[in-house]
Amino acid sequence: MKYRLRLFVTGYTSHSRRAIENLRQICERDLIAMYEAEVINILEHPQIAEN
Q: Domain 3-50 is in which class?
């Protein structure tokens, strides 16, 4: 089984970068190779967030 994760951020601020790094660390520690993570910047791709 593979987990598919999406992290929605608003720009690449220090908070966004921290959230991305936290997600990466959690996935690598707990899910190892059983995940696919996607980071979506809603300022660049608002249509994805609307779906």
A: alpha beta
